[in-house]
Amino acid sequence: MMTFKRREMLRIGMLGTGLSLSQYLRMHAAETPNAPKRSGIFIFLEGGPSHQDSFDLKPDARVEVRGEFKPIATNVEGIQICEHLPQLASRADKYAIIRGITHSVPDHGLGKTYLLTGNKPSQTVSYPEYGSVVSHEHPSDPYLPTYVSIDESFVGPGYLGTQYSALTAAKPRHGIPYSVRGISLEEGLTVDRYKSQKRLLDDLDIAFKGFEDLDDQVAGMDRFTEQAYDIISAPRTRAAFDLSQEDPAESDRFGKHEFGQSLLLSARLIEAGVHFVTVRLRPAEFDFDTHSENFPRLRTLLPAFDRALAGLIDRLQERNLLSSTAIMAAGEFGRTPKINSGGGRDHWARAMCAVMAGGDVRGGQVIGETDAIAAEPASVGYSPDDLAASFFANLGISPDTEFQTNVGRPITLTRDGNPISDLF
Predict the structure, then answer these.
(1) Are 362 and 106 contacting, i.e. CB atoms less than 8 angstroms apart?
(2) Is the distance from CB of 253 to CB of 311 less than 8 angstroms?
(3) Does residue 419 sit within a domain?
(4) Is residue 342 in a domain?
(5) Tens of pLDDT along 150-175?
(6) C-alpha 216: how far from chain center
(7) Which range marks the domain in which residue 136 is found?
(8) Cα–Cα distance measured from residue 369 to residue 374, given in angstroms and rounded to the nearest whole number
(9) Residue 212 lies in a domain
């Protein structure tokens, strides 16, 4: 009876719907080996962006294949990209383009699972997404979450367990006060009020002292509630999520749309000490699933992506963080070589591309190639597994790291992938 009452009183510390911060911390607490701390940002272009209308143009193909966009020169001799990516064209020396990525899963759900984990979906093994692996291997300090997902996480921590889940942050909107579940306080709950409730919890601890041995979970409550209090009251943590502290010129540099503000928030989180951010903008303002009106829609999507990614690269470089932050941008698949009757391109997994920057990536190069109509690799193709192995290697995590899975057997992090050596 006394244990139940104490549990109920601890709910005073809940920070809104979903997980409270202390719940999140309890899940996240686990023994982790010491490892070099390399940060990462995965920009997931949901819907499957058209590779032949962005980083793999085919200007000599017939009109129903090459489409409406023209290639432009970059600041690296011999490399051309789409005319609607002018800022990235002027920074081509800062990133690498991987063409000829190929797989056989042209389905949104399964394709996303594949690209977000680097392992082909399985009915028996639940693979973790990138950020959950980083959360396991490179934990942030106690005052920060290790892994933040901007918009909802799609895959989750898989066999690693819920303690390595992402802390979910809403998509930021320019000029609107920002909130994040588990960090920001619920409506009407100020930090001062939270502190007073923390003092009440301390009094409860004294009142119920001696009953801790009744329930192991209750016995662990104090430590996590204390951590929750430390985070919610720490100026460093709250400031990391507060875009209103940015100079207006920074919002302009990244773009005042959701995509730009999400990458600006990503930069702030990395600067604060968060070790991994996934930016996943679900279909809404930024939907790359262009079955119809491919070119009108990309005239909006590509400039926003161009501005935001260029802003991220510049900012991290200016703050001496690009060399310690691995960046990858990719979708779940590419688009069909031939334009359909609705002026769009349909799902196409046999060819796609990705962009990598930061960390040990050697910029100013294109790795791999597709055939004359961007339908499949021209020679050597790369799998999403290879892409994952390369990303993990750039994060300072060996792709051969072995984990215990949810089916009770050990498994390597990327079973079928190898790092693309030319990247580094």
Answers:
(1) no
(2) yes
(3) yes
(4) yes
(5) 987 889 999 998 888 888 877 888 87
(6) 34
(7) 31-184+241-423
(8) 8
(9) no
Count of the separate structural domains present in the chain: 1
pLDDT in tens, 44-64: 999 999 999 999 999 999 999
Report if residue 73 sits inside a domain: yes
Question: Is a pLDDT exceeding 90 seen at residue 76?
Answer: yes
Helix, strand, or coil (residue 5): helix
Residue 325 parent element (H or E): strand 325-330
280 strand-pairing partners: 44
CB atoms within 10 A of CB 361: 23
pLDDT the model gives residue 404: 82
H or E element, residue 301: helix 294-318
Question: Sorting pLDDT into bands at 50, 70 and 90, what band is 285?
Answer: low
Q: What is the CA radius of gyration of the chain?
A: 23
User: Closest by alpha carbon to 241, among 319, 335, 177, 329?
Assistant: 177
Give residue 37's pLDDT band: very low, low, confident or very high (50, 70, 90).
low
CATH of the domain at 348: 3.40.720.10
352-357/347-348 β-pairing:
unpaired
